[in-house]
Predict the 3D structure of the following.
Amino acid sequence: TRQAYRPDVYDIDTNKLFEYYRKIALENEAQIRKKTKFISAYLQNNKWKIKSSNGDLSASILINAAGAWADQVAEFCGVSKLNIIPYKRSIARMQAPNGVDVQNWPMIDGVGETWYAKPDAGNLIVSPADKQMVSAHDAWADDETLAAGIQSFQGVVNFPINRMLSNWAGLRSFAPDGNLVIGPDKNNSSFFWFAGQGGYGFQTAAAASQLLSDLLLKENVSVDSEILEALLPGRF
């Protein structure tokens, strides 16, 4: 048996990070339109005309940050898709064993990412680390898939994990080569892609958004040319 431990890896409070970015956006006069369905967009006189369920909009630049729906949004805008593929991942929140404080446990995972577990609000999150190719949709967890992940975790601990508190699933979207897609479309310089973050959107958010800003504002980019070429949509 072999194992590895890294004390320099930390957990991210995703809600706090999201609210931090949201606060910055609002302070810079961004508008967040809730319960608004995007319908279509088209270019007219070098301006994007955007139709939505909450009125029409106009913009010089359109950024496609639609996650698993990135290809669909592109096609609604008359832009060729890049084959951004969504994969479903399932997660269960399990009650921690009686008398066991899991708060300071590290995240642990099976070799080859066959499962993983981590503490969460006094309990445990367990995932089978599934990667099921699906179409973009509001995802839900599959009971059999969850059971397989819980069984794998159960095999490496010496106490029972048998009470599920809740479960859910999410979509992790990847470009064909697995890299992020950041920058202007090769056939339409006013349509920017910001997609393919996989399961690492929170970890890459700061650097990825800075690169997008540099490209959009035509400033010196913060990465070297080799990395940039590996991220630009024109590679496809």
About this structure: Residues 14-84+177-235 form a domain with the FAD/NAD(P)-binding domain fold (CATH 3.50.50.60). Residues 50 and 56 are 6 Å apart (CA to CA).
